[in-house]
């Protein structure tokens, strides 16, 4: 007799919906049910007409928007030409993950539920709406087959987009961009380390416009990788191949075959992230130590959520630190469960701070290195920003996996349209790209309100702004919040000078030197 089969499809922006979906998959396998778990955009949506039972787990982002990994599915499912009987054979359930403090609480889940009904689907139960404001996880997904010796052919490395490739770089095939420079742009006495980083994207096929973002795939530090392997008793140089337990499950494209344990921990497992409740649930199942298992079960219970918050979420304790706190359990974790237990490192998005019109074959970003203190002795550090800051192209070649996607900022295409930009701190990065692009196109009606603490410490691109002002290509209104007794912020400058900006707009009737220069043949 065949086991019942069903499909779990998720749309996740920060990983929560994916985490819940993976928990559903583990629970199904524990109950001997056939279950596939996939991101909505990785699933061939035309096959949905053949699925008898589907569970949709969806987050809502921004102002009622679908997550990035379900936007293609979202556009398809709302096509007006789809017949009303398209999904008449499918039974489904929709679980929404949202936050009731937002106006469009679980908007995506509600809208998807209605659309599936319109297409003939049969709902197993009303739409389920999870609320992050409310007080209120078995077989492994993969098997690690260890190799006794290194293979005679092939070499370890991630799938990358090579120069001259027909396809643009993507998450599955990023471009290994050479880092040209990594310069600190805040003063030595300033509390915040901010870096201007430049990459060479020659031959990558990457193109971008003002407002677009670059996604960077970071790695764990060598010290953390070594500590993780020690705590779990793993040989960093041990090679293995990854084998899915289920026929419809594919291996992560970011992992080479064969792969070393060092590569897995360095480039894939997010050991520096704060663990979710499901981490403690699975860890308790794997624990053989009575006292540690008891505590893990407490953390994973509904009654233990307040204590878990105080132990883990409030101080931002990482997965690696938790494993160090439960050494007997950590040492007994079967390697097969590593990919079930620890989420994958997610790419980080940065606003592109340069224009290809001003810097051909180059891509620049402005990165604030995240570091802060909690009650834990060790400072909390942002994984990607700290990793980027540690890279020094002056000590040898450095390559960073990256790709580009369209951003949410859009700038007018008509040359006579003025643009007022408000960019305090590192938030000015996309506006620098826009100003460079607009000036190169002869568009001079650019107004920038910029705010920082000190003129001599964190006034990013001061000389560049001043040079553009002398060419009448930019009107700059700065605000330095710590240079006087009474703090002055950008919003104060907006109130003071907003009317003056409109007067300047009315007066700009003749072409500036910048415009005349840009129109020369």
From TrEMBL:
It holds the Pfam family FAD_binding_1. FAD binds at residues 316, 348-351, 382-385. Gene3D superfamilies: 3.40.50.360, NADPH-cytochrome p450 Reductase, Chain A, domain 3 (1.20.990.10), Nucleotide-binding domain of ferredoxin-NADP reductase (FNR) module (3.40.50.80), Translation factors (2.40.30.10). Its cofactor is FAD; FMN. FMN binds at residues 12-17, 59-62, 97-106, 132. It catalyses: 2 oxidized [2Fe-2S]-[protein] + NADPH = 2 reduced [2Fe-2S]-[protein] + NADP(+) + H(+). It is an enzyme of class 1 (oxidoreductase). The keyword Oxidoreductase applies. Its main location: cytoplasm. GO terms for cellular component: cytosol; nucleus; perinuclear region of cytoplasm. NADP(+) binds at residues 426, 481-482, 487-491. GO terms for biological process: iron-sulfur cluster assembly. Residues 6-151 form the Flavodoxin-like domain. Residues 172-413 form the FAD-binding FR-type domain. Its EC number is 1.18.1.-. It is found in: Cytoplasm, Perinuclear region. This is NADPH-dependent diflavin oxidoreductase 1. It comes from Cercocebus atys (Sooty mangabey).
């Amino acid at each position: 007799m065949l086991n019942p089969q069903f499909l779990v499809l998720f749309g996740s922006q920060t990983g929560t919906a994916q985490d819940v979906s993976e928990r559903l998959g583990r629970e199904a396998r524990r109950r001997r049910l056939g279950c596939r778990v996939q991101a909505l955009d990785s699933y061939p949506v035309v096959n949905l007409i053949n699925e008898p039972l589907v569970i949709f787990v969806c987050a809502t982002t921004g102002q009622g928007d679908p997550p990035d990994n379900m936007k293609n599915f979202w556009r398809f499912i709302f096509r007006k030409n789809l017949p009303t009987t398209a999904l008449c054979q499918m039974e489904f359930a929709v679980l929404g993950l949202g936050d009731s403090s937002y106006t469009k609480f679980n908007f995506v889940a509600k809208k998807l539920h209605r659309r599936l009904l319109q297409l003939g689907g049969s709902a197993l139960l009303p739409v389920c709406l999870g609320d992050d404001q409310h007080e209120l996880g078995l077989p492994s997904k993969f098997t690690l087959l260890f190799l006794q010796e290194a293979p005679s052919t092939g070499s370890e490395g991630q799938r990358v987009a090579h120069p001259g490739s027909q396809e643009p770089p993507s998450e599955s095939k990023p471009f290994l961009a050479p880092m040209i420079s990594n310069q600190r742009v805040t003063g030595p006495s300033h509390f915040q380390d901010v870096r201007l980083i430049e990459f060479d994207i020659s031959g990558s096929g990457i193109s971008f416009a003002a407002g677009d973002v670059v996604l960077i795939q970071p790695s764990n530090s060598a010290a953390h990788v070594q500590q993780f392997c020690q705590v779990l008793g793993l040989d960093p140089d041990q090679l293995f191949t990854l084998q899915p337990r289920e026929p419809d499950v594919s291996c992560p494209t970011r992992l080479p075959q064969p792969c070393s344990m060092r590569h897995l921990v360095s480039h894939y497992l997010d050991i520096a992230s704060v663990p979710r409740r499901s981490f403690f649930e699975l860890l308790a199942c794997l624990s053989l130590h009575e006292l540690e298992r008891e505590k893990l079960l407490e953390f994973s219970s509904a009654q233990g959520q307040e204590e878990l918050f105080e132990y883990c979420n409030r101080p931002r304790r990482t997965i690696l630190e938790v494993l160090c706190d439960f050494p007997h359990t950590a040492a007994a974790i079967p390697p097969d469960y590593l990919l079930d237990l620890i989420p994958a490192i997610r790419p980080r998005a940065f606003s592109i701070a340069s224009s290809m019109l001003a810097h051909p074959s180059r891509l620049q970003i402005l990165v604030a290195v995240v570091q802060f203190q909690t009650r834990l002795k060790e400072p909390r550090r942002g994984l990607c920003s700290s990793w980027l800051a540690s890279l020094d192209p002056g000590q040898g070649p450095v390559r960073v996996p990256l790709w580009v996607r369209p951003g949410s900022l859009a700038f007018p295409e008509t040359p006579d349209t003025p643009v007022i930009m408000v960019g305090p701190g590192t938030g000015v990065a996309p506006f620098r790209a826009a100003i460079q692009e607009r000036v190169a196109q002869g568009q001079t009606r650019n107004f920038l309100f910029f705010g920082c603490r000190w003129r001599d410490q964190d006034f990013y691109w001061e000389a560049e702004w001043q040079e553009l002002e002398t060419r009448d290509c930019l009107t700059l209104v700065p605000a330095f919040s710590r240079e006087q007794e009474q703090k002055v912020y950008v919003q104060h400058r907006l109130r003071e000078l907003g009317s003056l900006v409109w007067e300047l707009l009315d007066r700009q009737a003749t072409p500036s030197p910048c415009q005349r220069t840009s129109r020369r043949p």
